[in-house]
């Protein structure tokens, strides 16, 4: 019966083909060897002509020489290439920016996924969302995230707290309130007394959220600042519950009291003359981190919509708002020398004091501040202001992981998740080479960057 036999044959072949092209966790178990590559470990060290073995989703071995090939499904020739740990953004607001517009109507698991896939396209393994998430939705998103959204960077998030009815920037509270209304979920916890603030922290800990973000900012006199008699007990009880408290503070001058209260990190650096050596030293001594977050102000002056590195994931209509309205090509932007040296000096004060600097962008907090892209640009800014490329990469990998309590990301080391980026050019020579992404692996599995870019850049 030749017909039947060939039908069975075809069916078998189809099963085999499906097996070979199956993208999911099945192939995550395959071993991959990257040989002869420059390995930027993430802790400030580098191995030239090294090898790295991925097995079972983890980094199984890192060697300065060859690793014997045995049971390895795939060998990647790393000659001339650089491997870095996948990056981490320590300050973002996913959910509100979609491919088409910005606002609370976009906030959904599907849009979170899309934003975090954009992060993955840019070589990010995790992103820390700072206080603007519908808490139950975000918790559900986190559960089994790797199985359900294998192409997305890992979502970390914090409960958001500020004076009752206040919090983020002027447009944001309305959008956040709209999401809270639509989902029936808590997003911003309004604080009005020390006792109630303590109860809120206990509630957050009980719900399984590991971080609290507080806003200490009067928004140029339009809001009430969170008072020390409220944030002090809040931070103290959070500490006792194992929660970390990160701060949005408008002025460096607010930092000493927040530091003495035990704040774990600052999501806006407020670098400049007011960021004194004393504050830098106090920051270092307390072990808190600072996210300089300078691209937020800078990039809206630039025609980023024409940058091919951003255009790759933008629909044509999405580029419009990022090209006009007073924006200039990067080469034509004249920087105020006084401000530049003030920023540089204060960043140096932080580095000299030995304080931890973490990469963060505030992406998604307002329209047109794109996920992932802004992280690469922030690395450039950090280097422009005096960090070495190696220091900047550590800020976006191991240092960020440590402060965000991610124990399996940020280093190319055995036992760590195999979340890494293969670059075709060396970022230690020029930090802009973090743009030369050839492949991104998340937890041992190569993500499909072309598929992600095709969907992100689709017209409505
Ligand atoms: Zn923010």
Structure commentary:
The chain has helices at residues 2-21, 25-28, 109-121, 135-142, 145-148, 172-183, 194-207, 228-241, 255-261, 277-286, 295-298, 308-311, 316-320, 337-353, 373-384, 389-395, 398-403, 449-456; strands at 32-40, 46-55, 58-63, 74-77, 82-85, 87-92, 124-130, 154-163, 188-191, 211-216, 244-249, 265-266, 289-290, 356-357, 420-423, 437-442, 445-446. The protein is an alpha/beta fold. The relative contact order is 0.16. The model is unreliable at 1-5 and 13-28 (pLDDT under 50). The protein binds zinc ion. Residues 91, 93, 130, 267, 362, 365 line the site of zinc ion (ZN).
Supply the helix-strand structural class.
alpha/beta
User: What ligand species are in this complex?
Assistant: zinc ion
Number of helices: 18
Number of strands: 17
What is the architecture of the largest domain at the second tier of CATH?
Alpha-Beta Barrel
Specify Rg, calculated over alpha carbons.
23 Å
Tell me the number of structural domains. Answer: 2
Tell me the strand percentage band: 15-25%
The amount of helix comes to 25-40%
CATH topology of the largest domain: TIM Barrel
Measured distance between first and last alpha carbons: 51 Å
Short key terms for the protein model shown above:
single chain, 460 residues, alpha/beta, Urease, subunit C, domain 1, TIM Barrel, 2 domains, 9-stranded parallel β-sheet, 8-stranded mixed β-sheet, 18 helices, 37% helix, disordered N terminus, binds zinc ion
In short:
With 460 residues, the protein is α/β, with parallel strands linked by helices.
Which helices and strands appear, and what pairs or packs with what?
Elements: H1 2-21, H2 25-28, E1 32-40, E2 46-55, E3 58-63, E4 74-77, E5 82-85, E6 87-92, H3 109-121, E7 124-130, H4 135-142, H5 145-148, E8 154-163, H6 172-183, E9 188-191, H7 194-207, E10 211-216, H8 228-241, E11 244-249, H9 255-261, E12 265-266, H10 277-286, E13 289-290, H11 295-298, H12 308-311, H13 316-320, H14 337-353, E14 356-357, H15 373-384, H16 389-395, H17 398-403, E15 420-423, E16 437-442, E17 445-446, H18 449-456
Parallel strand pairs: 1-4, 1-5, 6-7, 7-8, 8-9, 8-10, 10-11, 11-12, 12-13, 13-14
Antiparallel strand pairs: 1-2, 2-3, 5-15, 15-16, 16-17
Helix pairs in contact: 3-18, 7-8, 9-10, 10-14, 15-16
């Amino acid at each position: 019966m030749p017909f039947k036999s060939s039908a069975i044959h075809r069916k078998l072949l189809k099963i085999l083909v499906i097996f070979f092209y199956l993208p999911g966790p099945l192939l995550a178990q395959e071993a991959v060897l990257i040989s002869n590559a420059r390995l930027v470990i993430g802790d400030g060290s580098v191995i030239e002509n090294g090898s790295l073995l991925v097995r079972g989703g983890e980094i199984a071995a890192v060697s300065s020489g060859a690793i014997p090939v045995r049971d390895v499904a795939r060998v990647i020739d790393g000659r001339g290439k650089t491997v870095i740990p996948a990056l981490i953004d320590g300050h973002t607001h996913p959910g509100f920016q979609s491919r088409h517009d910005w606002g609370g109507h976009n906030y959904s698991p599907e849009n979170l996924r899309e934003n975090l896939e954009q992060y993955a396209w840019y070589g990010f393994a995790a992103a820390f969302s700072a206080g603007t998430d519908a808490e139950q939705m975000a918790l559900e998103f986190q559960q089994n995230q790797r199985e359900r959204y294998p192409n997305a960077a890992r979502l970390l998030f914090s409960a958001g707290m500020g004076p009752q009815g206040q919090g983020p920037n002027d447009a944001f509270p309305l959008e956040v309130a709209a999401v809270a209304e639509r989902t029936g979920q808590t997003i911003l916890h309004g604080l009005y007394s020390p006792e109630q603030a303590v109860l809120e922290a206990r509630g957050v800990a009980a719900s399984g959220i590991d971080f609290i973000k507080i806003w200490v900012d009067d928004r140029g006199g339009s809001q009430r600042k969170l008072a020390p008699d409220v944030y002090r007990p809040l931070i103290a009880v959070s500490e006792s519950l194992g929660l970390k408290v990160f701060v949005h503070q408008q002025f460096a001058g607010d930092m000493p009291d927040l530091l003495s209260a035990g704040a774990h990190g600052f999501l806006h650096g407020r670098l400049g003359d007011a960021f004194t050596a004393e504050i830098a030293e106090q920051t270092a001594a307390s072990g808190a981190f600072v996210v300089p977050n300078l691209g937020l102000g800078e990039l809206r002056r630039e025609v980023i919509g024409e940058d091919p590195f951003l255009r790759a994931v933008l629909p044509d209509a999405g580029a419009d708002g990022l090209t006009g309205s007073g924006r200039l090509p990067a080469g034509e932007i004249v920087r105020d020398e006084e401000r530049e040296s003030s920023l540089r000096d204060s960043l140096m004060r932080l580095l000299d004091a030995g304080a931890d600097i973490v990469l963060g962008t505030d992406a998604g907090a307002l329209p047109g501040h794109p996920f992932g892209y802004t992280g690469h640009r922030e690395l450039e800014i950090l280097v422009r202001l005096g960090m070495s490329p190696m220091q900047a990469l550590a800020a976006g990998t191991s240092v960020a992981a440590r402060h965000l309590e991610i124990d399996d990301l940020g280093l190319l080391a055995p036992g760590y998740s195999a979340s890494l980026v293969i670059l075709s050019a060396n970022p230690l020579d020029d930090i802009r080479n973090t743009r030369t992404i050839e492949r991104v692996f998340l937890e041992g599995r190569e993500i499909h960057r072309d598929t992600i870019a095709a969907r992100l850049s689709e017209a409505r």
